[in-house]
Amino acid sequence: MTQYHEPIESLDEKTRNITRAINSLKEELEAVDWYNQRVQATNDLELKGIMAHNRDEEIEHACMTIEWLRRNMDKWDEELRTYLFAEGSILEAEEGQEESGSSGINIGDLK
């Protein structure tokens, strides 16, 4: 399969599932973009509503996949907690994370 950059036999099932999820996420985001462009381009109000509904369904699918990645791939949880729903500047959220000296490992994790 062309989605793999390493020999598939050297990849475990978890890594293959992560690849599946990332590819699905890319496809969902591409569909969101296509539907969004169609919503903006059409003058037919009923078609606009259908396309907006379809776009929103694709957003739902993308969010579900992101949540799966958060639960199953290292670093997603930490990064989403830093940036998702952050108030103010996104860049300042990163700076706040660096200033707090968070290593991503808590003492409780070492138990």
Provide a descriptive summary of the structure in words:
- The chain is mainly α.
- Helix 1 runs antiparallel to helix 2 (45-72) and helix 2 packs across helix 3.
- The chain is 68% helix and 0% strand.
- The radius of gyration is 19 Å and the shape is flat.
- It has helices spanning 13-41, 45-72, 76-83, 90-99.
- The mean pLDDT is 89.
- The longest helix has 29 residues, at 13-41.
Decide which structural class fits the backbone.
Answer: mainly alpha
Runs in which pLDDT lies below 50 for 5 or more consecutive residues are none
**Strand residue percentage:** under 5%
Please summarize the sheet with the most strands.
Answer: none
Write down the overall geometry. Answer: flat
Radius of gyration: 19 Å
E-strand count = 0
Q: Helicity level, as a percent range? A: 55-70%
Mean pLDDT: 89
SSE order in H/E notation?
HHHH
Gap between N and C termini, in Å? 40 Å
Task: Describe the structure concisely.
This protein has 111 residues and is mostly helical. It has four helices and no strands.
Tags for this model:
single chain, 111 residues, mainly alpha, 4 helices, 0% strand, flat
Outline the fold blueprint.
Layout: H1 13-41, H2 45-72, H3 76-83, H4 90-99
